[in-house]
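Dear H.,

Thanks for agreeing to be a second pair of eyes. The structure we're designing against is below in token form, covering all 79 positions.
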């Protein structure tokens, strides 16, 4: 089987190979394909583009919070 990859995608796979300590590109590609094929249906059907647009809109409207510490974040979540 032959897979054509863009230069950008190949660079991302090379980065993944290094980060995951795979011995070669083929091993990295096989792991990524296996991961994609075994994703739960929810993640395969989720509209990520729409969700990103909604998130960008909320950020641009200033509907964000920032915290100085993890404890502050947890405290806010518990409210």
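And this is the sequence the design step returned. I haven't edited it by hand at all.
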């Amino acid at each position: 089987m032959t897979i054509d990859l863009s230069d950008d995608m190949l660079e991302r796979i090379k980065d993944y190979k290094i980060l995951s300590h795979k011995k070669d590109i083929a091993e990295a590609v096989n792991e990524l394909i296996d991961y994609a094929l075994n994703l739960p249906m929810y993640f395969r059907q989720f509209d990520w583009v729409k969700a990103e647009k909604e998130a960008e809109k909320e950020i641009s409207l200033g509907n964000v919070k920032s915290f100085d510490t993890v404890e502050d974040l947890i405290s806010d979540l518990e409210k």
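Two observations from my side: The CA atoms of residues 17 and 23 lie 7 Å apart. The mean pLDDT is 93.

Warmly,
E.
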